[in-house]
Amino acid sequence: MSREMIDRLKKQGITVPTPIQEQAVPVIMDGQDVMGQAQTGTGKTFAFAVPILEKIDPSKPHVQALIISPTRELALQITEETKRLAPEGIHVLPVYGGQDTIKQLHKLEGTVHIIVATPGRLLDHLRRETVDLTQVEYLVIDEADQMLEAGFYPDVMDILDQTNPDRQSMLFSATLPSSVKKLGREMLRDPRTIHVKPEKETIGHIKQLLYQTTDRAKQDALMTIMHEHRPFLAVIFCRTKRRAKKLNDALLAKGFLSDELHGDLTQAKRQKVMKRFREADIQYLVATDVAARGLDVEGVTHVFNYDIPQDADSYIHRIGRTGRAGGKGLAITFASPKDKQMLSIIEKQTKQKLERRTLDTLSPGKREKE
């Protein structure tokens, strides 16, 4: 790694690599294909961005690297993190749906070295012949398990067909089910598999509480606990877009600084909400699982599972939004009697028993010391 890159990392406060960075960077620098298993929040963006930025030749005006991600939010996040490390002269462009297509076309007409894209909008440009991927030397598929779950597989394969077959390819995924391994076999050549400890083994530092309630009493229970804990920043997960909107409206009516994040919002609105949350203009983000995929915000002190998630992996992903970089975090889950079976599955798979609490413990004389 160059001295300039080490200096840029130090300016970002990064002096010690995370496990995925320590293992992946030398392999990618060496030119090998990589299949990496790592959760969001483990530093994997820098694990592929650092070696790619070291290899890009700014004197060549064509697209040299392509990074594909399943959501606009994640594409923007990767773009921002890559730009923070990019030396002068290397141009990084996000390409995603919801943007003004004409403005995007103008930017693509200029010099672009790295494209960070969602599959749908990138395919649109390929069909218009407004982007050329034939000289791409480095390809990254990020959050591959989510990408395939969202049904992007045909789009991804169409995109790969238009890239340089001699490229170096990297695939990163939180899990490696057979569908992801199949994609790996089709896009990678003799890959080095890198596996860092999954989040379910690293959530021990997050305090996990359970409040048993009913659907009818849940909203009041949430507000009571929010008044008591007074989180600095909190993400509240709901099962559906409709429930997220309804809960956010109720919180606003009670004077809480909250906003909603779900798939019904325009991209401009979603970006505005995330900016307000990152800058702590709002304290509570009421979100659905899909909208919060890849959400990585420093300083999230609390996660509330207003609706219990549908599987253990979603639970792990949700509560991992707090306690970032080994810090402390608090995850509070609400469960009604009908959630008993799912609760049992979550506790079994995470090998952790959620600490049962009642609202009685929130009386002023028994204030929580979290």
Q: Please outline the major beta sheet.
A: 7 strands, parallel
Structural category is alpha/beta
What is the rounded Rg? Answer: 21 Å
Q: Helical region count?
A: 14
Order of helices and strands: HHEHEHEHEHEHHEHEEHEHEHEEHEHE
Count of structural domains: 2
**Count of strand segments:** 14
CATH architecture of the largest domain: 3-Layer(aba) Sandwich
Spans of at least 5 consecutive residues with low confidence: 363-370
- CATH class call of the largest domain: Alpha Beta
Helix content: 40-55%
Strand order of the largest sheet: 3-4-2-5-6-1-7
CATH fold field value of the largest domain = Rossmann fold
InterPro entries: DEAD/DEAH_box_helicase_dom, DEAD/DEAH_RhlB, DEAD_box_RNA_helicases, Helicase_ATP-bd, Helicase_C-like, P-loop_NTPase, RNA_helicase_DEAD_Q_motif
Motif (Q motif): 1-22
Domain Helicase C-terminal: 205-365
Keywords: ATP-binding, Helicase, Hydrolase, Nucleotide-binding
Question: What is the secondary structure topology, with strand pairs?
Answer:
Elements (H helix, E strand, L loop, with lengths): L2 H9 L7 H11 L4 E4 L6 H12 L9 E4 L3 H14 L6 E4 L5 H9 L4 E4 L1 H10 L9 E4 L2 H6 L3 H8 L7 E6 L4 H10 L4 E4 L10 E7 L2 H15 L4 E4 L3 H13 L4 E4 L5 H12 L5 E4 L14 E4 L6 H8 L9 E7 L4 H11 L4 E3 L13
